[in-house]
């Protein structure tokens, strides 16, 4: 079918486009700033039209001939009143779709019993659905609660709270309000499945995973999956939504404009009451622990150090995507050093690949030995595994307390296997620059909980001493300024 997607630069839209392409649909994306889509791996396989959906004329032109149009935009996080802005945009899109004789509108809204006193956010989501459905184009509204996947605002708020705070004071509704989370891959399957489906036309369909939990239970499940102790949570009655918003804004990376409506919506039960979707798009959604593990595992995968620029068509829906905002994807701490060298990139990586084992690490040898001894004393692998060959490395080989994760003529990445409260990598990239090269060295750390952050900042002085000198010594050896490895680095 001919499919138009609005919101392709957003969380859901950016993951939906490749799924639509996999289903062999012809995809057009409407974007106010098409340049934001330039780094997507699917960019060359879609048509991109510059446009603002509040402009009926240009939107109608872009929708001309479309069998299905996905409406995946909202104004949360903006400076204006988001409910008013969303309603105005929905009316314009409804009219444009009608003028273009679109076959179907598919809209993703939020769960919540309309007979309850809904938060402004959920009430706005429902209002947008009614506005779209009031036009001449048959509309399918899917309603979902918390979407589990790296980059989802609600999931990133959950991740930040649980990993950062071992003790929490929360509103009482955290122990009472029910939600029915759904994994991002299941959400995408439903969005694709209703497209062009005659049984879905003109309907409101509720979707969710198999688990119904309170928000406290959701935090407990996350802690269990990532290997943290369950957080001590003290619910108190007088904690106001306003105070909760400011507290979450302080301790999580989410912007206040996004936190405000999210917190309000957490006070409503958001569970599936109508299971009609099971007959229209038959599917067994993944269990909660599995979806959390996939989302966390995506971040902990081998592409973490380059996750914002290294997206590929095989990336799973749960993993971070280039379209995700900068505050998503969990916390990555890094020490980055860059050195210009006259040596070729391959020579720089050759020198980096010769580190460790009997030669040592060029700078601060006693600090590396001390770290290895400490690791051994607490049951870790220590430094004495050495290396298989003095100059060559292969993927999967051990190197002191590292494991080789990637090695090419211009890139070496080592994954730390010492005991640390999180996951750590050390990598080097070399790129040509005029008559020489630029060597970029990164120490990267994904902390686990508050202890992980404390560990990173505690060893920062050692990093400052070692890493700048290490990058420069690698460059000097590659350029031949030092004829061979220094004798003092030859260890037994």
Question: If you had to describe this structure to a student in words, what would you say it looks like?
Answer:
The protein is α/β, with parallel strands linked by helices. The chain folds into 2 domains: 2-306, NAD(P)-binding Rossmann-like Domain (Rossmann fold, 3-Layer(aba) Sandwich), CATH 3.40.50.720; 333-481, Alpha-D-Glucose-1,6-Bisphosphate, Chain A, domain 4. Helix content is 36%, strand content 20%. It contains 15 helices and 19 strands. It has helices at 11-22, 56-63, 82-99, 120-133, 153-164, 184-194, 215-226, 241-251, 256-265, 277-280, 288-299, 345-353, 365-377, 449-458, 460-479, and strands at 2-6, 26-31, 47-50, 68-71, 105-110, 139-144, 147-148, 167-171, 178-179, 182-183, 204-206, 213-214, 232-236, 333-341, 398-399, 402-408, 411-416, 422-433, 436-447. The strands form 5 sheets. Strands 3-2-1-4-5-6-11 form a 7-stranded parallel sheet, with helices on both faces. β15 and β16 form a beta hairpin. α3 packs parallel to α4 (120-133) and α5 packs across α7. The chain starts with a strand and ends in a 13-residue tail after the last helix. The model is unreliable at 299-314 and 487-492 (pLDDT under 50).
């Amino acid at each position: 079918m001919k499919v138009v997607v609005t919101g392709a630069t957003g969380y859901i839209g950016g993951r939906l486009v490749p799924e639509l392409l996999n289903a062999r649909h012809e995809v057009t994306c409407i974007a106010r700033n098409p340049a934001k889509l330039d780094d997507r791996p699917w960019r060359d396989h879609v048509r991109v039209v510059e446009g603002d959906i509040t402009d009926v004329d240009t939107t109608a032109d872009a929708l001309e001939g479309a069998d299905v149009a996905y409406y995946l935009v909202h104004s949360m996080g903006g400076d204006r009143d988001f409910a008013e802005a969303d309603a105005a945009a929905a009316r314009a899109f409804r009219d444009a779709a009608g003028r273009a004789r679109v076959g179907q509108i598919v809209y993703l809204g939020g769960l919540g019993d309309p007979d309850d006193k809904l938060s402004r956010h959920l009430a706005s989501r429902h209002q947008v659905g009614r506005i779209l459905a009031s036009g001449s184009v048959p509309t399918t509204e899917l309603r979902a609660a918390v979407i589990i996947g790296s980059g989802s605002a609600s999931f990133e708020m959950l991740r930040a709270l649980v990993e950062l705070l071992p003790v929490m004071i929360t509103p009482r509704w955290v122990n009472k309000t029910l939600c029915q989370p759904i994994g991002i891959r299941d959400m995408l399957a439903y969005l694709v499945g209703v497209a062009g489906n005659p049984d879905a036309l003109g309907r409101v369909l509720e979707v969710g995973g198999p688990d119904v939990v309170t928000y406290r239970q959701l935090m407990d499940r996350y802690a269990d999956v990532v290997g943290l102790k369950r957080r001590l949570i003290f619910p108190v009655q007088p904690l106001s939504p306003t105070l909760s918003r400011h507290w979450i804004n302080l301790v999580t990376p989410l912007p206040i404009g996004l936190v405000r409506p999210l917190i309000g919506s957490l006070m409503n039960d958001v569970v599936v009451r109508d299971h009609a979707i099971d007959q229209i798009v038959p599917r067994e959604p993944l269990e909660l622990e599995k979806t959390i593990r996939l989302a966390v595992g995506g971040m902990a995968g081998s592409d973490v150090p380059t996750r914002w620029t290294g997206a590929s068509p095989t990336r799973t829906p749960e993993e971070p995507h280039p379209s995700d905002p900068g505050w998503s994807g969990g916390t990555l701490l890094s020490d980055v050093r860059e050195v210009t060298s006259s040596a070729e990139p391959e020579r720089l990586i050759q020198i980096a690949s010769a580190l460790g084992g009997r030669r040592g690490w060029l700078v601060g040898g006693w600090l590396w030995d001390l770290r290895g001894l400490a690791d051994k004393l607490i049951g870790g692998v220590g430094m004495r595994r050495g290396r298989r060959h003095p100059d060559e490395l292969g993927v999967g080989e051990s190197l002191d307390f590292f494991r080789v994760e990637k090695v090419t003529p211009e890139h070496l990445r080592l994954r730390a296997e010492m005991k640390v409260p999180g996951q750590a990598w050390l990598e080097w990239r070399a790129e040509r620059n005029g008559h020489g090269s630029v060597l970029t060295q990164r120490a990267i750390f994904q902390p686990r909980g508050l202890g992980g952050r404390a560990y990173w900042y505690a060893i920062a002085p050692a990093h400052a001493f070692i890493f700048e000198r290490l990058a420069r010594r690698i460059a000097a050896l590659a350029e031949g300024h030092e004829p061979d490895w220094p004798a003092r680095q030859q260890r037994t």
